[in-house]
Amino acid sequence: xxxxxxxxxxxxxxxxxxxxxxxxxxxxxxxxxxxxxxxxxxxxxxxxxxxxxxxxxxxxxxxxxxxxxxxxxxxxxxxxxxxxxxxxxxxxxxxxxxxxxxxxxxxxxxxxxxxxxxxxxxxxxxxxxxxxxxxxxxxxxxxxxxxxxxxxxxxxxxxxxxxxxxxxxxxxxxxxxxxxxxxxxxxxxxxxxxxxxxxxxxxxxxxxxxxxxxxxxxxxxxxxxxxxxxxxxxxxxxxxxxxxxxxxxxxxxxxxxxxxxxxxxxxxxxx
Length: 271
Fold this sequence. Notes:
globular
């Protein structure tokens, strides 16, 4: 029987996944990108794609799209984990969210597979502002969100990727759950101020209702369930710092101001 040596990175073209792919490749490790467009496709909605993608795989970075907290995600992740273990894949590292009951159900489903698991619970990503959800808003100069004056300890995707790579390659992290955040609690007013300073023009934050935001999402063809995730910060459950980055990597987490300055230098927010 051929020894499994490859790491499958599900969502290997996404914000954290592509960074994990790059960091593993830099170490000289064999990596397979799990995506619809990969040479060996991986599609969450098509279980027939799972086994071929797992062929020869020792470890998997598991990211679920659109979100681990969405209905049906836990059952799907659990089913995938069972297939992985049955095929000889032992190490599963799951990206989860802080304070999400649905995501925690996904964690438990993955653990029940019998795999050597690690759970990485991350705060909201810094890169949401330059790589996805809020990019167009920042370019337009106004971030309109249903977050009122709530605070969030935004974490950098590079920090997440470094923790994930450690978990994939070091047995000391088996059976551990790590919560990751940045070093500061920031309101969206604070975020707008930091972005304004980094970009050199005024970015404003406009609080809106969840109902109005759902209407905007629907008009743009985005699942309205994303709006419900904002409730997770409105009730204060995540209004505290976590220290998983320091615990795993032995260094401080990146500050949002440093992220904003580096992103601005790329010109991504230029008009």
